[in-house]
Specification:
Shape: globular
Number of strands: 12
Structural class: alpha/beta
Radius of gyration: 26 Å
Order of helices and strands: HHHHHEHEHEHEHEHEHEEEHEHHEEHHH
Bound molecules: pyridoxal-5'-phosphate
CATH class of the largest domain: Alpha Beta
Distance between the termini: 37 Å
């Protein structure tokens, strides 16, 4: 291999960057010096194709993109500095309620990186990809076992995509029953924001059911809103307060009596893995977030998997094609007879599915149950430590996550949930989810996960207790030690800039 000498090009030295800190670092564009290159393999004797030979002229840009030119050394330094500015599950506790961020075993990445899995083109025929098909078929089978359902699609690439798929299945089923006029979907006021968004996207109308004094679905309000226009109900159980809906069997029966279907938002299945199943509670449709409950690294919105599992009567509507074991013992892709069609290109985020499958095999059935028990134990322990300092809006015992509030601390010392979250960053932890669920003022929604040790939990508890003694004005300046300080969230939301052009908007 040959590396071009770093200083071969005119322009002199690249600006040196501080290691990790808050000072403005040069952008990759500012580091650019014409002619600088990274290492590459030497050219061969084979003729090179020109751009015009590869792409029709009409599709070519009239001029070359103005891309930065940097040496490999400067590029690696730049990327490494950026990674050091990140917080991640690999670094420490990330107690983000609802959207579980647990440590992911590296063995899952190793398995997903096997050349036999990673090196296959998605359009390779079934005859050449029997191993992949078997993996997906086995994963689907296990997810049915875990949820108590009978058939599954692995296509949806995220929880929200799973919700939309599930609601389209609900719609297809009602239409097949001659009930296409049903247009309402019931959702508790504690629901994750994607639920009403998916309902709207699927063409249904959201009807909200309030939470009662127990922190559970208000049964009287449910009875009041159930009528012949209801297509179904979407529930999270345990709900987003971390509380188990104890009336779940009666709720499912009431909705079924009214002709509706019962949808389980299983984005976060951590509390019930191997303990109980949505199918046994009476649910018809379940989506799971493999990236929250199993092992798929999903920071920064990166690829997830939101399979949807259904009861027998909905199986014929599932998206296809589905990996299926054929009579001869081999595997093939089969599309169900009344399929709603594809919801994703190819076969979903296949390597995310391989990671989750590996995680499930590594744990085994008893191990998955221990995941749930550990998640609940850790959350209960932490809540106990915060008792008396932070407000607990509901008394019931929580499962894998819990919600506390700084309402009293705010009244006394101006300490808001946001201040606690930002102060926690200075203590070396990621913040919990804040201001959700919407029904609790100054909410901190904490999910420590089963992957954190008692020592880490104790450190997290001490940090939260220490912060609770501070006053809002001082804590309001946090975070002071992170690469980025307190941002103006209102301005960021109102003047969202989704693209970045270094020449127009250099980062400063
Ligand atoms: C995260 C989450 C979702 C949405 O999942 P995405 O993969 O982020 O689209 C839905 N419901 C609940 C309860 C969640 O926690």
């Amino acid at each position: 291999m040959t590396a071009p000498p770093v200083d071969a090009a005119p322009g002199g030295q690249a600006r040196s960057a501080p290691l990790i800190g808050r000072d403005a670092e040069p952008t990759i564009f500012e580091m650019s010096v014409p002619g600088r290159r990274a290492w590459s393999f030497p050219r061969t004797e084979l003729p090179e194709w020109s751009a015009e030979e590869l792409v029709p002229g009409a599709y070519l840009r009239p001029e070359l993109l103005d891309l930065p030119e940097v040496s490999e050394r400067d590029l690696v330094g730049h990327m490494t500095r950026l990674t050091h500015r990140q917080y991640s599950v690999d670094l420490g506790a990330y107690p983000l309620g609802s959207c579980t961020m647990k440590y992911n075993p590296k063995a899952c990445d190793e398995a997903a990186g096997l050349p036999g899995l990673a090196g296959i083109h998605p359009s390779a025929p079934a005859s050449l990809t029997q191993g992949w098909l078997e993996l997906l078929w086995r994963l689907g089978d296990i997810l049915c076992e875990i949820t108590g359902m009978s058939a599954v699609t692995l296509q949806p690439p995220a929880g929200a995509a799973g919700e939309l798929t599930g609601l389209l299945l609900m719609r297809a089923w009602h239409q097949a029953q001659g009930q296409g006029h049903r247009h309402k979907v019931l959702i508790p006021d504690s629901a994750h924001g994607t639920n009403p968004a998916s309902v709207t996207l699927s063409g249904y109308d959201t009807v909200t059911i309030p939470t009662d004094h127990r922190g559970l679905l208000d049964m009287a309000a449910l009875a009041d809103r159930l009528d012949g226009a209801v297509a179904g109900i979407m529930l999270t159980n345990p709900n987003t307060l971390g509380l188990f809906e104890e009336d779940i069997v009666q709720i499912a029966q009431a909705v079924h009596r009214a002709g509706g279907l019962v949808y389980y938002d299983g984005a976060n299945l951590n509390a019930i893995l191997g303990v109980t199943r949505p199918g046994d509670m009476g649910f018809d449709i379940v989506h799971l977030n493999l990236h929250k409950t199993f092992a798929v690294p999903h920071g920064g919105g990166g690829p997830g998997a939101g399979p949807v599992a259904v009861s027998p009567r909905l199986a014929e509507f599932l998206p296809g094609p589905i990996p299926t074991r054929m009579d001869g013992g081999g595997f093939d892709w089969v599309t169900p007879p009344r399929s709603i069609g594809r919801v994703h290109s190819w076969h979903g985020n296949a390597l995310a599915l391989a990671r989750a499958y590996t995680y499930i095999l590594l744990n085994g059935g008893d191990g998955l149950r221990r995941v749930a028990e550990g998640a609940v134990l850790n959350a209960r322990w932490l809540r106990q430590r915060l008792e008396g300092t932070y407000d607990s809006p509901f008394e019931r015992p929580n499962l894998h996550e819990f919600v506390v509030s700084t309402a009293t601390l705010k009244r006394k010392r101006g300490l808001r949930a946001l201040d606690v979250a930002k102060r926690l960053l200075e203590e070396g932890f990621h913040a919990p989810t804040v201001y959700f669920p919407l029904i609790v003022a100054e909410a901190l929604m904490i999910e420590p996960t089963e992957t954190e040790s008692p020592q880490t939990l104790e450190a997290l508890a001490s940090a939260l207790l220490r912060i609770a003694k501070e006053d809002g004005e001082e804590a309001g300046k946090a975070p002071r030690t992170t690469p980025v300080g307190r941002v103006d969230e209102a301005r960021a939301a109102r003047r969202l800039i989704p693209t970045w052009d270094a020449r127009e908007r250099p980062i400063s």
